[in-house]
Amino acid sequence: MSSIATLNKVLTEYYDKMASWEACVVRESEYSLAQIHTLEVLGNYGATNMKTLAHRLGITTGTLTVQVEKLVKQGLVQRQYSEDDRRSITVALTDAGQAIHEHHNALHIALTEDLTKDFSDAERDTLIALLSKVNQEF
After folding, report:
1. Which of 104, 94, 101, 85 is nearest to 27 (CA)?
2. pLDDT 10s per residue in the chain (138 long)?
3. Are 20 and 39 within one domain?
4. E strands, 1-138, where?
5. CATH code where residue 129 lies
6. Does 87 lie in the same domain as 50?
7. Same domain for 21 and 74?
8. Helix/strand/coil percent split, the chain, to 5
9. Domain of residue 98, residue span
10. Same domain (yes/no): 58, 115
11. pTM, two decimal places
């Protein structure tokens, strides 16, 4: 098997395991996976305009509009309209949304600590550098 085929196999296995873990964690909450991902992006990047948020989530702005409406009704995000251009909408977490993000992020931190507990600092740094390069390709 070529190194690319092996890497593909390993990345696919990792993705599948991570997606399964994420689905289990979210299933224990009252929110959908899409809602948690939206809160996660807003928690990681702060208030964001709809176009940028949709891009970071890999969805259309139309799909995001429906998602944001649900989150607004749940009191987890708020829309902020630009004073200069009312068509420009920024979305931000409310305190309740921030609390959910912090709880979910703590689960990710615990998983990351567990997965890399036997890594040296240098190995963690190498993994960060390599995954950062991969992420840039998206």
Report:
1. 104
2. 899 999 999 999 999 999 999 999 898 888 999 999 999 999 999 999 999 999 999 999 999 999 999 999 999 999 998 777 777 889 999 999 999 999 999 999 999 999 999 999 999 999 999 999 998 998
3. no
4. 48-49, 77-81, 89-93
5. 1.10.10.10
6. yes
7. no
8. 70, 10, 20
9. 34-136
10. yes
11. 0.85
- Residue-wise burial string across 31-59, b where 16 or more C-beta atoms lie within 10 A, e elsewhere: beebbbbbbbbbbeeeebebeebbebbeb
Compute the half-sphere exposure of residue 73: CA atoms within 13 Å on the CB side of its CA. Answer: 8
CA distance 43 to 134: 22
Among 50, 26, 29, 40, CA closest to 98: 40
Total count of domains within the chain: 2
Q: Are strands 89-93 and 48-49 parallel, antiparallel or unpaired?
A: antiparallel
DSSP labels, 38-72:
HHHHHHHH-SEEHHHHHHHHTS-HHHHHHHHHHHH
